[in-house]
Backbone:
């Protein structure tokens, strides 16, 4: 047997109104404990539940007591006895325990133990008896071999025979005559006593069938005869009534607590329902406003779809205009290219003219040099060369004019060349800008194509939005109708919450009356 330590030797007094209750499964594991058990044992509810009930067993309890307990329970009968239990800190307390199997559909499903305070003299008697059993005394307490009515009958017959013997001895009667009278009379009186006490024997037999516990009988009644058996059976019945009343009181207490919690929950639920009722009205109003807004959005979405379609058309027209502009710029680029080519050719012709002028310039210089030489030779010839000198002067003048004109033409051609170079550069810049414009126009065309596609997408989405908004409007109307149904249901819930609060208060009152009724069964008139 498991020995639970430590033990302090200090006794804890059990309150007279204590109702120590617990239940276990068929293997002795705790499945329920009430607050009184938790308070007096010192264990928490978590430490007790799911653990074997023998963790509160005190080492002073002899194993034989619990062997009889389990043998009785497994036979389907109730058991009552004086038990010493250990607290968590090692203290102990004495209780009168009534343990009974709990049936469901004819089968045992759990064991219930209801314990109450035991009188001090019973605790002391149990302490002495259990010490004897631990020290090697009898593990079982047995009933007398001869029933009481047989012992009483034999006693009456024996006394009668003794009386006749004294009468015969003092009266000087013959022993044969005394015996002839004494024996029949003694047998008759013994038979009358034996027969008259038959109901007591039958009652004791019924009591033994109800409560067959010699050890408990000896402790509670102090007797080991039929009267002790009947007294113990009556105590068992009393304990059974107290156990039922204790279980009812415990259940009524829990019912009262749960009824209070239910009332609080219903009150909270009622307030929440009222709040929900107001919020439902607000939501219904908001849904109505949303429905109006949805209709407005639907109209705006339809207008957006129309505007998107018009923008799509305008974008297409703009794309066509940009495409025409691109073609014109391409043509301009080509014309500028042609003009540039012509200017390039003009610059080449200018260079050729410049080369011709250089030749004329050289010829004029040579002519001027020849005229000068001719004039020198005419001067040497004197009068004979005077006419030749005039011609030489004319030739020199013509060469100088030619040289001067050539210089002017060369200056003009140089100016024309510079202008042509500037024109070529300007045309090149124009061509680059035109090419850039063509590229930008191409990008603009691509952008317009993208815009056109996006506008098409917007148009399609606007149509979808309009359809979705229409559907949402229908859903909003359904929601509004459902909210109206919720509002009606909420009103019903508010009424039902009121009825539930009233019913909860009635349940609490009934639980209180049930507790009072249980206290009557557990009151002093059932005590010993």
Residues:
């Amino acid at each position: 047997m498991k020995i639970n330590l430590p033990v302090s030797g200090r006794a804890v007094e059990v309150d007279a109104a204590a109702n120590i209750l617990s239940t276990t499964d068929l293997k002795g594991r705790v499945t329920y404990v009430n607050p009184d058990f938790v308070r007096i044992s010192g264990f928490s509810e978590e430490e007790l539940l799911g653990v074997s009930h023998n963790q509160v067993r005190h080492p002073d309890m002899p194993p034989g007591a619990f062997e009889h307990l389990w043998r009785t329970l497994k036979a389907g009968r109730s058991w009552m006895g004086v038990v010493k239990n250990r607290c968590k800190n090692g203290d102990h307390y004495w209780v009168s325990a009534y343990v009974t199997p709990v049936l469901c559909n004819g089968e045992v499903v759990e064991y219930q133990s209801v314990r109450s305070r035991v009188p001090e003299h019973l605790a002391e008697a149990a302490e002495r008896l259990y010490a004897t059993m631990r020290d090697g005394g009898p593990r079982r307490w047995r009933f007398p071999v001869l029933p009481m009515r047989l012992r009483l009958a034999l006693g009456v017959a024996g006394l009668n025979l003794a009386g006749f013997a004294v009468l015969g001895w003092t009266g000087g009667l013959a022993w044969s005559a005394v015996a002839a009278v004494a024996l029949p009379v003694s047998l008759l009186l013994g038979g009358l006593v034996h027969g008259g006490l038959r109901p007591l024997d039958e009652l004791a037999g019924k009591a033994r069938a109800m409560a067959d516990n010699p050890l408990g009988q000896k402790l509670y009644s102090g007797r080991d005869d039929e009267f002790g058996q009947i007294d113990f059976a009556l105590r068992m019945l009393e304990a059974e009534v107290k156990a039922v009343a204790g279980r009812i009181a415990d259940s009524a207490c829990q019912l009262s607590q749960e009824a209070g919690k239910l009332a609080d929950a219903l009150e909270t639920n009622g307030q929440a329902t009222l709040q929900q009722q107001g919020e439902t009205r607000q939501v219904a109003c908001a849904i109505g406003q949303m429905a109006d807004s949805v209709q407005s959005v639907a109209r705006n979405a339809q207008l957006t779809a129309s505007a998107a379609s018009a923008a799509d058309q305008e974008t297409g027209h703009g794309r066509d205009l940009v495409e025409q502009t691109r073609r014109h710029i391409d043509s301009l680029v080509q014309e500028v290219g042609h003009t540039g080519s012509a200017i390039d050719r003009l610059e080449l012709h200018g260079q050729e003219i410049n080369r011709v002028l250089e030749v004329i310039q050289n010829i004029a210089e040579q002519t001027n040099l020849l005229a000068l030489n001719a004039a020198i030779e005419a001067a040497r010839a004197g009068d004979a060369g005077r006419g030749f000198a005039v011609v030489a002067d004319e030739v020199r003048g013509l060469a100088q004019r030619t040289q001067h004109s050539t210089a002017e033409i060369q200056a003009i051609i140089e100016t024309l060349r510079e202008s042509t170079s500037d024109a070529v550069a300007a045309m090149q810049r124009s061509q680059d800008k035109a090419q850039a414009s063509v590229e930008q126009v191409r990008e603009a065309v691509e952008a317009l194509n993208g815009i056109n596609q996006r506008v098409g997408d917007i148009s399609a989405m606007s149509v979808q939005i309009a359809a979705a908004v229409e559907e949402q409007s229908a859903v909003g109307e359904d929601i509004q109708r459902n909210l109206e149904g919720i509002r009606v249901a909420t009103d019903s819930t508010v009424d039902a919450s009121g009825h539930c609060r009233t019913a909860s208060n009635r349940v609490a009152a009934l639980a209180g009356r049930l507790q009072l009724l249980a206290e009557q069964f557990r009151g002093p008139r059932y005590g010993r």
Observations:
- Strands lie at 20-24, 30-33, 79-86, 92-104, 107-117.
